[in-house]
Amino acid sequence: MSAQSPRMPILKRAGLRPFPPRVSAFTRPFWTTLGEGRLITTACRACGRLTFPPKLVCRGCWSEDYDWRELRPSGVLYSYTRVHVLPRAFVADGLYDFAIVDLADGVRLMCRLLGDPAQFAPDIPVEMVVAMYDDGPLFAARPTG
Amino acid sequence: MRNAAILGYGAVPVGIYQRVKDGSDPPLEHELAVRVVLDAVRMAGLRKEDLNGVVVAHPGDHTKQGYFHTFLTAYLGLTSRSTVVQVLGNGMTAGLAFDEGLRLVRGGETDCVVVIAAHFESGTPTADHLNFSIRLTGDVDFQSIFGAVPIAWYAMSARRYMHEHSVSRAQIAEVAVKNRRQAALNPLAQYRTPVTLDEVLAQRMIVEPLGLLEVPGRADGAVALVITSEELAQKSGRPHVLVRSRGFYHEGEHQIPDRHTDMTDYQSIRIATKTALERANIGLDDVDVFQIYAPCTIVEVMATESMGLFPRGKGWAAAADGRSAFDGSRPVNTSGGLLSRGHPPEATPLYDVVEACIQVLGLAGERQVPNARVGMTVSELGNYNAAIAHILEGRP
Predict the structure, then answer these.
(1) Are B279 and B299 in contact (CB under 8 A)?
(2) What is the C-alpha end-to-end distance of chain B, expressed in Å?
(3) CB-CB under 8 Å, A121 with B142
(4) Which of A138, B94, B369, B376 is deepest in the core (most CB within 10 A)?
């Protein structure tokens, strides 16, 4: 795994993740590395295809031969929303924003959107950050600069 | 393969049944289901003994009775040599149940099958309902963790559509006004009081930029169809609806793909509707009325554009200028649609089939599309990336 990208800022968040992910032997490297400020995913060794979330088989060619590849933590905001009607698990968190982000490396992901909503607009540049809760990390985006 | 026809239907008005109101005793899901089955069979002029096969749309997860299909079959004292089955497929559930009933008849497995949907959920508080729904929104370990609810995808589509086409929320919200006007004329509709654009825009936000009247409300419902062979329908001498064709497509994605694609285009709807038209050997202009599964205002806009009813980026205008109303040139969601007829999700596509039948049989009263004979129903999964379409022809 290459490690040339700048590390993502790690922002402390009080409390537990509202709806924590499960961690498997396969996904463990993703979450461990995220906690260190790096965003990684799988790349197919046979055809080179990058995917997100990480997968143990290539969606393109079904090769099971993959590398973990670090993603540059920058992209553009494709779209976003703020949820006003809260699922039970998120009631304590209050209103929240999340986004679809198109990363510079060509993959699309969904994540929490942080920062001032007045600055949010489609196609603005965003940077990826780590939201570090008491029980572990989540990935998030915020407007650049 | 032979043709199948709809010879009878029954439905209760969409509404709040499961939630206890004013201390009165609420009906139970199977009690409404039994009622609509009897209505559908009576309309078909058939008897209990004529039925051979029960297809049930898997009820929502908040409907209490489990194994609803075998429970209901026993409650009605039916036996079957074809099948008794429950079908599940997200918001397309009832569309796929309809499709399964058609397949059994077309394949010769039975001459007469009943297709039933009963969805009860209003007794579950919204926060708990949504807590379940986040598991239905993407990958539970990489996407649900952020708290997306299903309609959040439509909110994000709306935001993107507005950006790309320089369209305002108000312009898209005209769809809610148009559909409410149609629901006002539909006795099966949940929300029948006309609303103005200002009233739609004044509601509280649910998922920005969509407010309360731009997203579906909570609802219960029950609906049943009797499907027979074309031959049996013709012999009955009764009005019936011939099913001319179907089309289906799944894009191979679950909500957002892993690469940069256009989220404002429903590829699955384009392909499924085109397939259905080709198989019926007709064009879009030959279809008189369209019932489309559109939980939010933006979905009706994007779906109608994707199937070619209106140009890309211009579909929003059809509601405001009346083209997509029952008295317009491209009537869409004449029942009031999911926004106003109401949306009991696992039953919704069968309600849309019922509205298509009512229209192509000329029974829609004040909201009748003039001379409607051919209708199209589309149930789709939006950002769950699949769609199914059927073409129906009335034989009044």
Answers:
(1) no
(2) 24
(3) no
(4) B94
Percent residues over pLDDT 90 in chain B: 90
Amino acid at B4: A
Asked if B147 lies within 8 A of A79 by C-beta distance, the reply is: no
Kindly state the average pLDDT of the residues A12-21.
95
CB-based contact, B159 to chain A, within 8 Å:
yes
Which of A23, A40, A83 best tests the B interface by mutation, with the highest count of B CBs <10 A? A83
Q: How far is A82 from chain B (nearest CA, A)?
A: 5
Asked whether the predicted pLDDT for residue A5 surpasses 80, the reply is no
pTM for the model? 0.96
Taking contacts as CB-CB distances below 8 angstroms, the residues of chain A near B143 are 53, 110
Answer whether B146 touches A (CB < 8 Å): yes
Query: Could A85 and B159 be called an inter-chain contact, meaning their C-beta atoms sit closer than 8 Å?
Result: no
Q: Strands B221-229 and B4-11, how do they pair?
A: antiparallel
pLDDT tens per residue across span B123-160 = 999 999 999 889 988 899 999 999 999 999 999 999 99
Interchain CB distance below 8 Å, B257 and A108: yes
Which residues of B fall within a CB distance of 8 Å from A100?
Answer: 156, 256, 263
Q: What is the pLDDT of residues B342-380, one digit of tens each?
A: 999 999 999 999 999 999 999 999 999 999 999 999 998
- Please list the ranges in chain B whose pLDDT falls under 50: none
- CB atoms B144 and A19 under 8 Å: yes
How far, CA to CA in Å, does A110 sit from each of A53, A117, B153, B185? 10, 17, 11, 41
Residue B216's pLDDT is 96
Q: Which domains does chain B have, with CATH numbers?
A: 4-124+218-236 (3.40.47.10)
Domain extent listing, chain A: 10-143
Nearest to B223 by CA among B75, B98, B394, B380: B98
Tokens of B313: 């980026």
B-interface mutation test, from A81, A102, A108, A129, most B Cβ less than 10 A away: A81
Torsion angle, alpha carbons of B188, B194, B199, B205, to 10: 10
